[in-house]
Amino acid sequence: MFQTIITATVLYTATAVDLLVILLIFFARASTKKEYRNIYIGQYLGSIILILVSLFLAFVLNYVPEKWILGLLGIIPIYFGVKVALYDDCAGEKRAKKELDKKGLSKLIGTVALVTIASCGADNIGLFVPYFVSLNMSNLIVTLITFLVLIFVLVFTAQKIANIPGIGGTIEKYSRWIMAVIYIGLGMFIIIENKTIQTILEFLF
């Protein structure tokens, strides 16, 4: 179980680095307890929607008969890792600023949820689905509980460091490399765990 918690923490951290930068933007403009609370609710709402979509897709993929075929899903996070490293293409910060400029702070719950889903939702689902497929039921439950705790930790951390000069810029500067390394590492883990390369080599030779 401890290993599952550690792996889930590393995985969520990879997806959360960019979200942390986005949340810093929201907290930099928020000033009341209600606005802070709405950011928490919006982040939970957006994150849970992404997790539920990932769970549904993982459930469907569980009916794939050959385990080594599921290992091919590891190519998805590897692709995202290379893409982030080369292009840094997640434009969540720009989207957050655009939504805030358009809607202000009056609809923070919906705005935070929307930006969370729209910004890097495809990346998150692309990471969560292959990982969820590789878990048994008990490890999946532990992973989901860990995710729910880490969502709070993410938002709380963003709230505390939002007003510290230079922190947001530093996180933004290195976020792409942190995400790239973890994405590629996760992809390799999924491929190895499902013995995909070994099975393909056995077919060929």
Q: Would you give an account of this structure?
A:
This protein is mostly helical and 205 residues long. It contains nine helices and no strands. It has helices spanning 2-29, 33-61, 67-71, 75-87, 92-103, 108-133, 137-161, 167-193, 196-204. The longest helix is centred in the first third of the chain and has 29 residues, at 33-61. The model has no long low-confidence stretch (mean pLDDT 77). This is CadD family cadmium resistance transporter. The chain crosses the membrane at residues 6-27, 39-62, 68-87, 108-133, 139-162, 174-192. Keywords: Membrane, Transmembrane, Transmembrane helix. InterPro entries: Cd-R_transporter.
Short description:
It comes from Macrococcus carouselicus. The chain crosses the membrane at residues 6-27, 39-62, 68-87, 108-133, 139-162, 174-192. This protein is an all-alpha fold.
Order of helices and strands: HHHHHHHHH
Sheet having the most strands: none
Structural class by helix and strand composition: mainly alpha
Ends: how far apart?
37 Å
What is the typical, i.e. mean, pLDDT? 77
Low confidence ranges: none
Number of strands: 0
- Total count of helical runs of at least 4 residues: 9
Helix content: over 70%
Radius of gyration: 18 Å
Strand content: under 5%
Anisotropy-based shape:
elongated
List keywords for this structure.
0% strand, Cd-R_transporter, mainly alpha, transmembrane, CadD family cadmium resistance transporter, 205 residues, 85% helix
Describe the secondary-structure layout.
Elements: H1 2-29, H2 33-61, H3 67-71, H4 75-87, H5 92-103, H6 108-133, H7 137-161, H8 167-193, H9 196-204
Helix pairs in contact: 1-5, 1-6, 1-7, 1-8, 2-6, 2-7, 4-8, 5-6
